[in-house]
Design brief:
Number of helices of chain B: 12
CATH class of one domain in chain A: Mainly Alpha
Distance between the termini of chain B: 43 Å
Strand order of the largest sheet of chain B: 2-3-4
Helix content of chain B: 55-70%
Mean pLDDT of chain A: 83
Number of domains of chain B: 1
Number of strands of chain B: 5
Oligomer: heterotrimer
Strand content of chain A: under 5%
CATH topology of chain B: MetI-like fold
Largest sheet of chain A: none
Low-confidence stretches of chain A: 258-264
CATH architecture of chain B: Orthogonal Bundle
CATH class of chain B: Mainly Alpha
Helix content of chain A: over 70%
Largest sheet of chain B: 3 strands, antiparallel
Number of helices of chain A: 11
Structural class of chain A: mainly alpha
CATH architecture of one domain in chain A: Orthogonal Bundle
Chains: A mainly alpha, B mainly alpha, C alpha/beta
Amino acid sequence: MTKFLRRTYMGLILFFLYVPVLLLVVFSFNASKSRGVWGGFTLQWYVDLFKDRAILAALRNTLVIGLLAAAISTLVGAVGAIGLYQLRRGWRQGLMGLVNLPMLNSEIVTGVSLMLLYTAMNLELGFLTLVLSHVAFCIPYVVLSVLPKLRQLDPHLPEAAQDLGATPTQAFFKVILPDIMPGIFSGFLLALTMSIDDFVISFFTTGMGVQNLSITVYTMAKRGISPKINALSTIIFVVVLGLLAAVNLPDLRRKNAKASRPPV
Amino acid sequence: MRAKAMLLPFLLWLALFILVPLGLVVYYGVTVEEPIPYEEIMRADGSVHYRLADGTLRESEPYETRTRFSLANVSRFFDPMYVKLMGRSFYVAFCTTLICLLLGYPVALILTGKGFRHRNLLLLLIILPMWMNFLLRTYAWLSLLENSGLVNHLLEAMGFAKQQFLYHENAVVLGMVYNFLPFMVLPLYTVMEKIDHSQLEAAADLGANPFQRFLRILLPFSLPGVLEGITMVFVPAVTTFVISQLMGGGKVPLIGDIIQQQFGKANDWHFGATMSLLVMVVVLAFMYALNRADTENAGKGEVRIW
Amino acid sequence: MKKVLLTLLALYLALCPLALAAAEEQVTLNVYNWGDYIDPDTLAVFEERTGIRINYELYETNEDMYTKLKKSKTSYDVIFPSDYMVERMIHEEMLLPLDYTAMPYTQNIDPRFLNASYDPTHAYSVPYTWGTMGILYNTTMVDEAPADWDALWDARYDKSILMLNSPRDTIGIALKRLGHSLNSINPTELEEAKQSLIAQSALVLAYVVDEGKDKMVSGEAALALVWSGDAQYCIERNPELAYVVPPEGSNLFFDAICVPTSSKHPAEAMRFIDFLCEADIAAQNYEYVGYAIPNSAAVELMGDAYAASAVSNPPDETLSRCEVFTNLGDDTRIYDRIWTEIITSIY
């Protein structure tokens, strides 16, 4: 009975999460442009999608900005985290409070404050300001991913390395870096994800026609979303789902085999 | 590798992208922009020209503005209209957070439950929608729920009357719950995954009923996750402006909508900055209180568990 | 999980050279325009003909555009402000004087449109479209065609009315309904308009701008306050819709093409303006945009197709009762304040 209840509950939650997604997928094959009417099956929107310069440019901007922002913020954030780790406790805590600030702050305040910064610097809103903003809000995520790994690090290891004749630089590259690499890596990916997903901060800090996917969707949604956008989200959905499935299915099968073994 | 050298770019970032912008918000918040003072002078032939403070004469009415220190915008915010607006934004965010917690807690509980199969797959399925643009998914809800939408088509086909689901506070809450639910589930899951099930079993063996087990073991243990989930849902929910526009049809303005308006249509950056500043103060105070509760309770929780 | 993310990363790295290859050196015109206000095909024609790239960005209201140009550092080359905004921007020295000798096709513009009060000599603006504000209604959802502005306050259409989420337009119409000027800054008249809009808000389904078109086409609401071009656009997509300009009069507007002072390529910008004045291009844009055009050569080219549109050709008598918005300068703040009071009063 409880098992049944659990399954029903999970089913309902998944239904709630996926109804709109499935709707987007279905509409991407709808020949009628109107959402209320089913006009037959078509692949036209997929063809149109690859001819739409605005959507493709937005996709490109999203990818380029995401990668640039993630790379720069990982560099600054990881190096900064190592620096922070070597500081005295009081200083470290004070600085950490500041690092946490943008994460506790609403996106709208971050967006607005960055816009004021660029205006004060007389910087033209566009690609550059967008990248700078994304770097700015991604750095805390990197710092917070790397710091825990540094704390797990045995503080005697680099000392031991140096005692054994390694220069501080060698100690860093041979001892510290390999140990915190997973943290740096997950920080990079977190930054990438945050950048791709961002709308509010981009909204305030872009201009001159430079749009990422969220902003394009925002302007389009206001004027009745084009089925081309449905086609694009279907593609994104299928690609992500496919990747996840390909990588996780073997794992899952192994685990399930274990789980379904009778309890000892 | 000197610590100071390594910290340099990081400190530079901290100063330029956190401290200076916040300083600017404060600066804009406590200043106002007003037309420069000038005098209208009537000539003998009846035509008008203008004299500026420095004595220059102008043919057309001066349009320049000057910035002046003033707390006028702060007191303007305490107009009942804006206080009510702020109250409503917090109310809507509170409802959203509560519903997310009520829906998300059992999900995390079931996922981390003993012997639940497909745990990873289900967790992935819950995160997956986050990879699609949130605006798109919100827009899909519009297609479902609008007066001429799919649900109403179905209702009519089954012989029921049409319902108006959208353009109401409830619709805004629905949109937010939908978008923020994964942010609640994830931290809950992360914390509950570490729960030692043998403790629960031991408690059951010692005669604790399910309710007691929940109150005494599960809840204290999962509290950090609960608090992090609340933070991750509440902060964006207070200041969202897109979901309220789409789902509320412009009828449920939240503080975020009004702030955005000041930086766009209304062209009043100073008031917009004042509002951002006040929202920031309130949200940070809320977070601080929450964290205090966390540290106090965490201690108690540990005492109970061990 | 890590493997997934690695795969995604590889995908990214593969896509990047593709992205960078697309960014080549070229003159790029930054065009800042209203939504659905140009046929994208004509942009492609212009790019092909001149080798100038067009970078296109949208705004929702005159005020949004004004704030962006005024406050942020930008370098848009071509903008499409309405009458009162042209006046304001000329006054604040935000527009470049145009060189008509470089724009021979501007001779296609009907001289009747070249003595507007907002820019008497048209030194700064070339008329692009004109139109009215009126009521778009769904003939299957109303009992009778709306006779006057009161239709938007009619309790029979409870939760079936769309209003514009644009302070000057919505407050202006409320003023007009009460017999006042839509440029009023008289506090008593504005208070009266505010109260009437607060009373009306219970009947309103939603306050919208661009998203209203889609809602009217799909039959979401019975009545909507719209601009004529949007009405034309909707009627083409749903023949059950009709448009009327109430006899009390309404707003008559002119949208113009201008070059802001911050433009980096004014010569190319004027070349683009000239291109938009070509008869066949103007006609093609009319088909797409739906607003009446001041281009006599294009009107001639379209013949009956244009003359038959009731939306583009309102009767002279109605037009004579319409007013053009004037620049209210700092008093615009009063409208913003009233607007916030109205929308926050709803719950």
